[in-house]
């Protein structure tokens, strides 16, 4: 159920052994000599950092990157590279027999598969898919249900060889969501890494769900009994090697490359990339959202990094290595891999155990480390916790301040005296070879960011985006070491802010909902025109739901999340989603919708009790009955209401923020019944409409 939990092994204490000789005069002299010898040159930013974005047609809230000389967006960085497949082909041309994908067995060095071998394997595997009846067109969806590994990437490339689209599945989706995806995309063939994952898919088929599933391909060995069990329900099980044969036909730019299913729960918006967080039972994922992407979005975005190419000091080179551990089921990690491939660079996979990540880092010595803020926070906390004595602490802070001062003059390096004395053991823990780090998926605290910029002595970029825009929207400019913003629009994006009057954000003040347009914006949700229309307006603007503010130097700051807000008749403002998130902590509550309006003076709620706990929860209160009966039982309603109000009180809800009455509803809000968006937000207007009779009844009853 849960995904990776980050358990980093403890980082070493910074070495603070200032020898006494350093305090002598001789030391000062040698220090000066040392400084002169290693005096660095500051980094030249690619544009004026005081004007990082440019207003389009004189509209100051609609802006593009200052890197482009005209309002035309960058669609393709290299004219001939228009698909993810072509990106790989470019790397293949550059690197040939050079290393491409790396993996390691416990306590062993990394072993590498060359570009030529990867291409060959992908090609024959793709042909194998054709043999199994997959059609070479973008409406053919192939499932992958596996942890990051070379086989994952080879399988993805195999699909692209024949224009097929990849649908990543992952544990945290939960069984119901998995069934929904497999049916929606009519998937017949799924690649799995291990027998247990394949078995969970088989279980659905045995129950009569996912009728289209007919073939499972495993990366690892499986037992005879399993194959037998599969045969009984008409599913063929193969090992990866068995599927390899030959053929050829690369995809066209407009074709779908990837169908990416993002996850979340009602009322609990999860960041689409943030799956390093374990999900608690109560927040288990229930529904999924299918998104479609076109090939060209991937290639216009690969210059997530490459757009800074022309600056020389910062570009991905063939020698670069990244470590792959963020789930490949998310766009962010896929973008990174293809950004490496296009330059013929290397991708090393972690062993599959996040607690061994630091060990893998030491063995791989990556130059590029993609991270989520949570991981950087861990590293920061561990460094801080390891420095206990006040003296050491003072030295550490002093060293950090010296390095920060250098950063402010544009110098990034890892060979100062402070690095040798204080920071190099920390750097060594991360492999000792980092050139750049990219953090995305959630905001990072300015303190942690500037501390680590000093400590790690490498470039740390911050990006902002979401799955619907292929993970990228804005990116911090090389050479900008300030914090508290997410940089300027990527050269492939136009970003504007629009009014949210109910939250008091107005574009004329440079604040509002962030909207984005450009080639990396997604094509729509799979088979869901209504949701597509809600996310993408008729002019092609993607409405992100985040609230941003333009800063005077043309960078964007994320200030809030768009919320639904209304006023009660006595004039109090209510943010229902905040209240719903609190009520979700009540044990019997699975889903909750809080309603109120300016004609009423209090709130009411629609609650879907959790089918898994509700019956037992009732029994503990001496009430016996089926789930359905309990939902209609007024005593149960009272008990749930009391529990919710107690939870609300504990969480500090004011009395006007508490619901006064409830309706218990036995059927979950879902994408299928139209009450959730594909990104699992409640469709508030629809829920209100559907439950209007119950809502009216509650108000009438309590009024009397
Ligand atoms: C946008 O900028 C990139 C990088 O400078 C350049 O290659 C591209 O031609 C520019 N596009 C336009 C239309 O100016
Ligand atoms: C310092 O950075 C360079 C790359 O910029 C890298 O090659 C070197 O290994 C790094 N040294 C340490 C100690 O991290
Ligand atoms: C950009 O503006 C923000 C807010 O005014 C500031 O914090 C940041 O330091 C500025 N960055 C640069 C590079 O001037």
From TrEMBL:
<keyword id="KW-0547">Nucleotide-binding</keyword>
<dbReference type="InterPro" id="IPR045311">
    <property type="entry name" value="LC-FACS_euk"/>
</dbReference>
<keyword id="KW-0276">Fatty acid metabolism</keyword>
<feature type="transmembrane region" description="Helical">
    <location>
        <begin position="287"/>
        <end position="310"/>
    </location>
</feature>
<keyword id="KW-1133">Transmembrane helix</keyword>
<protein>
    <recommendedName>
        <fullName>Arachidonate--CoA ligase</fullName>
        <ecNumber>6.2.1.15</ecNumber>
        <ecNumber>6.2.1.3</ecNumber>
    </recommendedName>
</protein>
<dbReference type="GO" id="GO:0047676">
    <property type="term" value="F:arachidonate-CoA ligase activity"/>
</dbReference>
<feature type="domain" description="AMP-dependent synthetase/ligase">
    <location>
        <begin position="108"/>
        <end position="269"/>
    </location>
</feature>
<comment type="similarity">
    <text>Belongs to the ATP-dependent AMP-binding enzyme family.</text>
</comment>
<dbReference type="GO" id="GO:0005783">
    <property type="term" value="C:endoplasmic reticulum"/>
</dbReference>
<dbReference type="GO" id="GO:0005524">
    <property type="term" value="F:ATP binding"/>
</dbReference>
<feature type="domain" description="AMP-dependent synthetase/ligase">
    <location>
        <begin position="310"/>
        <end position="526"/>
    </location>
</feature>
<keyword id="KW-0812">Transmembrane</keyword>
<keyword id="KW-0472">Membrane</keyword>
<dbReference type="InterPro" id="IPR042099">
    <property type="entry name" value="ANL_N_sf"/>
</dbReference>
<dbReference type="InterPro" id="IPR000873">
    <property type="entry name" value="AMP-dep_synth/lig_dom"/>
</dbReference>
<feature type="transmembrane region" description="Helical">
    <location>
        <begin position="16"/>
        <end position="36"/>
    </location>
</feature>
<keyword id="KW-0443">Lipid metabolism</keyword>
<keyword id="KW-0436">Ligase</keyword>
<dbReference type="GO" id="GO:0016020">
    <property type="term" value="C:membrane"/>
</dbReference>
<dbReference type="Pfam" id="PF00501">
    <property type="entry name" value="AMP-binding"/>
</dbReference>
<keyword id="KW-0067">ATP-binding</keyword>
């Amino acid at each position: 159920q849960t995904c990776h939990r980050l358990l980093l092994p403890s980082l070493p204490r910074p070495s603070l052994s200032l020898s006494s000789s350093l305090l002598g005069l001789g030391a000062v002299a040698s220090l000066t000599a040392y400084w002169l010898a290693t005096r660095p040159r500051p980094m030249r930013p690619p544009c004026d950092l005081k004007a990082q974005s440019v207003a389009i047609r004189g509209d100051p809230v609609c802006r593009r990157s200052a890197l482009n000389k005209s309002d035309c967006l960058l669609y393709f960085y290299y004219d001939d590279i228009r698909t993810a497949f072509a990106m790989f082909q470019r790397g293949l041309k550059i690197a040939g027999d050079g290393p491409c994908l790396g993996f390691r067995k416990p306590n062993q060095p990394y072993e590498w598969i060359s570009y030529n071998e990867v291409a060959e394997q992908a090609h024959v595997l793709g042909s194998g898919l054709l043999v199994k009846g997959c059609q070479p067109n973008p409406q053919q969806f192939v499932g992958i249900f596996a942890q990051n590994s070379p086989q994952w990437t080879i399988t993805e490339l195999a699909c692209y060889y024949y224009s097929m689209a990849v649908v990543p599945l992952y544990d945290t989706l939960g069984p119901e969501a998995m069934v929904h995806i497999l049916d929606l995309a009519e998937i017949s063939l799924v690649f799995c890494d291990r027998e247990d994952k394949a078995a969970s898919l088989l279980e659905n088929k045995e129950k009569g769900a996912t009728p289209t599933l007919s073939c499972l391909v495993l990366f690892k060995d499986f037992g005879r009994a399993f194959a037998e069990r599969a045969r009984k329900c008409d599913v063929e099980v193969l090992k990866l090697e068995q599927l390899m044969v030959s053929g050829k036909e690369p995809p066209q730019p407009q074709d779908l490359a990837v169908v990416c299913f993002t996850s979340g729960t009602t009322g609990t918006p999860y960041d689409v990339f943030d799956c390093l967080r374990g999900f608690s039972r109560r927040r288990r994922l229930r529904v999924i959202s299918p998104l479609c992407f076109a090939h060209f979005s991937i290639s216009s975005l690969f210059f997530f990094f490459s757009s800074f190419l022309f600056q020389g000091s910062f570009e991905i080179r063939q020698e670069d290595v990244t470590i792959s551990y963020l789930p490949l089921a998310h766009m962010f990690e896929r973008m990174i891999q293809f950004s490496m491939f296009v330059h013929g660079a290397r991708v090393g996979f972690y062993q599959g155990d996040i607690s061994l990540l630091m060990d893998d880092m030491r063995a791989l010595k990556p130059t590029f480390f993609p991270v989520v803020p949570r991981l950087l926070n861990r590293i920061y906390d561990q460094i801080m916790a390891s420095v206990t004595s006040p003296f050491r602490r003072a030295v550490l802070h002093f060293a950090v301040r010296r390095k920060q001062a250098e950063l402010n003059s544009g110098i990034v390096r890892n060979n100062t005296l402070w690095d040798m004395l204080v920071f190099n053991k920390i750097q060594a823990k991360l492999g000792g070879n980092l050139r750049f780090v990219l953090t995305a998926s959630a905001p990072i605290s300015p303190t942690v960011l500037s501390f680590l910029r000093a400590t790690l002595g490498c470039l740390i970029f911050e990006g902002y985006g979401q799955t619907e825009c292929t993970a990228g929207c804005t990116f911090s400019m090389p050479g900008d070491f300030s914090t508290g913003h997410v940089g300027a629009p990527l050269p492939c994006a136009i970003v504007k802010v629009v009014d949210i009057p109910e939250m008091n954000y107005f574009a004329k003040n440079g604040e509002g909902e962030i909207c984005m347009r450009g080639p990396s914006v997604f094509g729509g949700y799979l088979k869901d025109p209504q949701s597509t229309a809600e996310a993408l307006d008729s002019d092609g603007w993607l409405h992100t739901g985040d609230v941003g503010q333009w800063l005077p130097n043309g960078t964007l700051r994320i200030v809030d999340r768009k919320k639904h807000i209304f006023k009660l008749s006595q004039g109090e403002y209510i943010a229902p989603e905040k209240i719903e998130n609190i009520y979700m902590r009540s044990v019997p509550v699975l889903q909750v919708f809080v309603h109120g309006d300016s004609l009423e003076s209090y709130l009411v709620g629609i609650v879907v009790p959790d089918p898994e706990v509700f019956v037992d929860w009732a029994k503990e209160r001496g009430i016996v009955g089926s789930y359905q009966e309990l939902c209609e039982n007024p005593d149960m309603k009272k008990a749930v209401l009391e529990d919710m109000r107690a939870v609300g009180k504990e969480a500090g809800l004011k009395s006007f923020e508490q619901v006064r009455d409830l309706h218990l509803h036995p059927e979950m809000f879902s994408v299928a019944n139209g009450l959730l968006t594909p990104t699992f937000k409640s469709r508030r207007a629809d829920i209100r409409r559907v439950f209007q009779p119950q809502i009216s009844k509650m108000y009438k009853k309590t009024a009397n």
